[in-house]
Amino acid sequence: MSAAQATTPEQPDQVAARNEAAVRDAFANWSAGQGSVFDLLSPDITWTIHGSGPVAGTYNGVEAFLQRGAVPLTSRLARPLVPNLHAVWAVGNTVIIRFDAASTTTGGHPYRNQYVWIFRMENGAVVEAEAFLDLVAYDKVVAENQPRQP
After folding, report:
1. 10 Å Cβ neighbour count for 94?
2. 99 lies in some domain
3. Domain holding 48: CATH number?
4. What pTM value is reported for the model?
């Protein structure tokens, strides 16, 4: 029997622990201003923002999500969002994250929101994501603030 045949498949709790660690590390780096949780996203991700309003919907591909889902908000913030991680739950390939994030808008007003993200991960990358947040607060920032100048 070869070494490859003797290798046992990874158990669900091992997968969950690995995925949770990757997400926690990404949030720690994001909080420290050394990267973003978006670094975990697969190029072919399917990201759904639940709710109603202009940004709600499903985005296919990382570029579609970033340009149409994230940039409308982040371009109107004077500095990057700073997340405050409250909890991470992982079961197999599913990771649920609850966090707050805050910044200041380009108009000088505070922005705060609460988030729950549900990730489905494969081989360390997020392939599907669902996001729950206060879309009224998101839409207000987009409507009332000008994007930063490049």
Report:
1. 15
2. yes
3. 3.10.450.50
4. 0.91
